[in-house]
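Field notebook, page 606. I keep forgetting to write these up properly, so this time I am using the form the group agreed on. The chain and the ligand, fructose -6-phosphate, are recorded exactly as supplied. Prediction of the bound pose follows.
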Amino acid sequence: MCGIIGISSNKSVSASIISSLKKLEYRGYDSAGIATLFEGKIKEVKSEGRVDTLEQNFDLKNLKGNIGIGHVRWATHGVPNSVNAHPHSSDNVSIVHNGIIENSTILKKYLIKKGHVFKSQTDTEVIVHLITENLKTNELEEAITQTLKQLHGSFALGIVFKDIPDLIVGARRGSPLAVGYGPNENYLGSDSYALKSMTNKITYLEDGEFCIIKKDQVLFFNEDGTKINKKILELSSDDASYEKGDFKHFMAKEIEEQPNTVKTGIKEYVDKPNSEINIYNFPWKIDEINSITLIGCGTAYHSCLMAKYWFEELTQLDVSIDIASEFRYRKNRFKKDKLYIFVSQSGETADTYAALDLCKKNNMKTCAVVNVIESSIARDANFVLPIHCGPEIGVASTKAFLGQILILYILALKLGYLRNEINKEIYKEKIKDLQNLPGLIEKSLLVDNDIQAISSTFNEAKGSMFLGRGFSYPIALEGALKLKELSYVHAEGYPAGEMKHGPLALIEDGMPVVVLAPRDSYYKKTISNMQEVIARGAKVLLITNKSKDEIVSENIWETIEVENTNDDLLPFLLTIPLQKLAYYSALKKGYDIDKPRNLAKSVTVE
Ligand code: F6R
């Protein structure tokens, strides 16, 4: 949430800052700003809206200075406007901040008493005045150490100083921050993606650490202000994955990439010639794990729910799931024989990270299913299962969802086999079916014409429902989430069997209802539930799989048939038309598909 860039160079930095900010917009896009140091002064420009608006409002080509910081914001404290946009500056200090300062009200009172004048409604502005205050009596490093100690909450900071004009300070607690190294210049970024076009040499700050970045030198310190050495990592560069190519939106590209996502996942974990699953370096003995808890947020939470059905089908393990923001504050009973699995595309989601941290503090076994392998969650878990799906730029998660559920399915299958809870024949059969999945996804993607026509009905309705049972229930939740986040229409995911316990009252003439009823063991039950909503006037879009058996039901509005495979794998195929439904609904409404309102890709605040 929010994006930070900082550059210290031997040449003008504003053009590079603008281009990095454009890349960072996926993290927040309600306002943007830049501050540079030039001729002994801090020059600050900021405006409400996107980076494009900032460019329209100011002559950025003439924003001079060899040192600068920039920010794109996702508002927490204070409405999105140009006053609350970052950077925030005093006469001597200018700051960009990601995170939340929890004791800002107390600090503000203290600083006002000292004569500081506040301009914005943000929590960030207290940091500006606190550092300014601490610099009155301390050298730079002491002032930073002292300030960080006084702050409660989470932050990633980029700071420049009028009176110390050759450096940028970066500091991290709870929100990620990376340092990059270039020729005659060095960088600060809220993630490596922001720095990718300038360097692939990166160092990640750990919680409590800060750094001083000059054009030809970077120094690192721990929270006591003691100098430390840190490793430089070399990231692989895959620039094509960061471009839209011929697609109109990243989301469209990412949906179409899914056969490849699944192919790559299978290649990484399945030994094709031997029909065997390889999970290397699993750090625990199989009999050390008797239960599993899966934890995530949003779409990643839906992956956890999906996995629960598979773990229960393929193993005898006791499986529970949790929303990270609930788990972290509940009185959990930690168990030594439990594996805690954290699912996250970004690997930076604040609530998921805090849940992981809690498990680590209680010495639990932790495993991360992540896309970004350099992320905080990946770095801090005992064991990592990467989903290998490449950068996901569209704010709405699509290919990462399929990547997550693939790896969780593979893990469930392997554990079931190792625990002798599924026999060898079934295990090998399921691995064989898995190999056909990319091809089936590819065919299931060919539904654009049907879905485009259907999507208007969902846009025009007051609301819609997405129903499924068993393996299809998590997919119904995911379909509803995609539609509401992209098209801003109300959509509710429900277990089909629950409708008669209340939600049926919502059904009225012409209300669009998606029913996921593949020909699995739940089929007949789901079809009965579908009849119940049709009888009350619902316009049902039935999504099922191809079969020689006719559908024994009347008055279905529209039917979409995905390819056929074993029951376990049908959720992968059912997901596709729902992603496209959300995409085309938003497209028809002319909404910003890759950057839906009020949202951001990486949710690094709680
Ligand atoms: C919805 C979506 C979000 C994320 C959630 C967790 O389309 O993308 O619900 O799934 O914010 O993000 P990660 O997976 O990065 O932890």
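OBSERVATIONS:
- Residues 424-444 form the longest helix (21 residues).
- The chain has three domains: 3-237, 244-443, 448-589.
FOLLOW-UP: compare against the apo run.
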